[in-house]
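so im writing up the methods section and need the Squalene--hopene cyclase record in one place, dumping it here so i stop losing it
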Amino acid sequence: MRDVTTLADATPVAGATLTAALETHIRKATDALLSYQQGDGHWVFELEADATIPSEYVLLVHHLGETPDLDLERRIGAYLRRIQGAHGGWPLFQAGDFDISASVKAYFALKMIGDDPDAEHMRRAREAILAHGGASKVNVFTRIQLALYGVVSWKAVPVMPPEIIFLPRWSPFTIWKVSYWARTTIVPLLVLQTLKPRARNPRGVTIDELFLEPPATVGPPKKAPHQSWAWFLLFRGIDSVLRVIDPLMPRGPRKRALEAAVAFVRERLNGEDGLGAIYPPMANSVMMFDVLGFPPEYPERATARRSIEKLLVVGDEEAYCQPCVSPVWDTALTCHALLEAGGDTAVDKARAGLDWLKPLQVLDLAGDWAHARPGVRPGGWAFQYANAHYPDLDDTAVVVMAMDRARNAAGGDARYDRAIERAREWVLGLQSRNGGWAAFDADNTHSYLNNIPFSDHGALLDPPTEDVAARCVSMLAQLGETPETSPAMARGLAYLRETQLPDGSWYGRWGLNYVYGTWSVLCGLNAAGLGRDDPAVRKAADWLIRIQNVDGGWGEDGTSYKLDYKGYEPAPSTASQTAWALLALMAAGEVDHPAVERGVAYLARTQNAEGLWDEARYTATGFPRVFYLRYHGYRKFFPLWAMARYRNLKRANDRRVAFGM
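--- predicted struct ---
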């Protein structure tokens, strides 16, 4: 058997020899991945963002006036110092450009922890912030944080009167026209912006030194690059009117509006998994209960506060706060990788993971998505341990495809049949009018709302995207639907054809970026029966082959989301993005292409002693240009999946990928 070095340096060799060498790599990766399985059958890996969430965690503790855990603060401080960029500030992803909002929050948190403003790292951060225009340049969410601390006045924050909670669906703006993450963030903020609490800040920390002007003079936010001047000026005018009339609003309707906001939050508190199961709404809900006078021991406030503690990742020397947790996503994708790897142990462990997933399907609660699709029965899975109001299409499709593959491998095991059929029904019911699918809602496409002052991040909506639509097409095709027999499938394929870019790639909303989107769509096109000679498939495969790095891998970073994107720009190879490209090319019928063997050799060469892969770079997306993610599981299961599929196809008489992913 050839060793790792020999395989990695190989030129094309006989399939049997290459397959024999791959077995060692696949076995090591499989054993390592199995070692991470939890006792009840599931997998969950760390989900890391940038400096923003751990910084906000520190500021939340001091906003509430809690007695801080000094050892935890020390570890968070160590983490923040380590991820500081060479430019002096903090980026949104590893080796990324300076980001003013992340940098101001990180500086504030470090100063709150007790770092000396004259320390070298603090001086560099301060100089970088001032060189980029000072703290008045931060985004709206950071402005709200600073207003809560009294650093800037509330005139620096767009007006959000609580009465908007009563606006009907036909209104130009309503909470039901924005995404789930915006909705759950905004509603408790309505209470905070109305009552305007002041952070307790027992240490009396201020950051006036980060401003080029007196902080109290900072006015409303400027137009964001993605915003249209006409729309922005219209909404700025509305904001100016609201500032005048807001103090004059009658007390009765205002009281009822605040009560409605609190009722919305209470209905969706979600136990110790938290409001929306993502950090910003969870933190806002705690501050909401605080400003309303509920003491720390009040059950709902205490539960909401505990939900945040469950996001902490505490190591020996460092700690950080995750934006959320990803057990359903991690478990479903791990099951796919193990089913591909094969072997009795791996398959049995995958079935244990699927058995863990099965009862998490939401069958009895019509969540917020039902406002757009009231006649559809629930049947999806959420991303987190629990988030019943907000299941998502991506997780649901991935879970279904794994369950379907497992039942077919077992000769028609019926244990997943009902779950699969209910999920299919829900996915079909959530298709948007343009033929695509979004993550959480249907037809959440009111693009003009990204021009309101509050949406300077440009991520207020949840429109259909190529990657999620492709996943749903893949699922439907794997379950036996065809364009000829399924109007939903036909419309989905038409959407995917329409969204292919001139260079052959597809946009990736939830992963970085065009490599991720192209992988997702090629899987869907293959599952739907489109062959390697289809023009869309051929063009996409050629693009992937063209952008392969000289080391055999593929890479892409967050700069690909820039508004003036003109085509792929090289980035260092990563294991997960290399795996996506390989899976995409194999779905496109290119298993025998030299680029695929070079990619497999890259994965073999970079496999570490544990049997997995090292990957410090961020390869996933929360919100383009605003918030990026590093899934610690991606380097563990995607490369195994790609190598196992390569082995399996090389062994097979039929080179066609038989599954939706």
